[in-house]
Amino acid sequence: MNFASVRIITDDVNRLVEFYEKVLGVSAVHPAPVFAELVMPACTLAIGHSQTAQLFGAGSVVAASNHTVILEFRVDDVEAEYARLKPIVYDWVKEPTTMPWGNRSMLFRDPDGNLVNLFEPVTEEAIKRFSGRH
Prior knowledge:
CATH superfamily of the largest domain: 2,3-Dihydroxybiphenyl 1,2-Dioxygenase, domain 1
Number of domains: 2
InterPro entries: Glyas_Bleomycin-R_OHBP_Dase (IPR029068), Glyas_Fos-R_dOase_dom (IPR004360), MMCE/EMCE_epimerase (IPR051785), VOC_core (IPR037523)
CATH architecture of the largest domain: Roll
Helix content: 10-25%
Number of strands: 8
Order of helices and strands: EHEEEEHEEEH
Largest sheet: 4 strands, mixed
Protein name: VOC family protein
CATH topology of the largest domain: 2,3-Dihydroxybiphenyl 1,2-Dioxygenase, domain 1
Strand order of the largest sheet: 1-4-3-2
GO molecular function: metal ion binding; methylmalonyl-CoA epimerase activity
Keywords: Metal-binding
CATH class of the largest domain: Alpha Beta
Distance between the termini: 16 Å
Structural class: alpha/beta
Shape: globular
């Protein structure tokens, strides 16, 4: 089994797609006006309009209501990403910080309030843990 994607449900697909295109540096594919995908080597970030939520079962998904999931992306240089994203991110949760498990992380919220973590393994143990992963 392979992890394929994470889907965010939103009331404003275009706003969220534009944000993640800037953050991730990839262009989205729009198979339908209510759905887009940002395809990366390790997985895909899918963004669907709240109109599509009914396809998953009534009441199963509510736009912009996530308080338990963190979208995490490994980067080569957290400090460089922080400098690059500072002008476009408006809701910083944590500036670059080295975490107890050896990752240098920065956390911010996307326009819908979803938590995003960009991290870089920096300790010898963390680098070893991530070696061989995409």
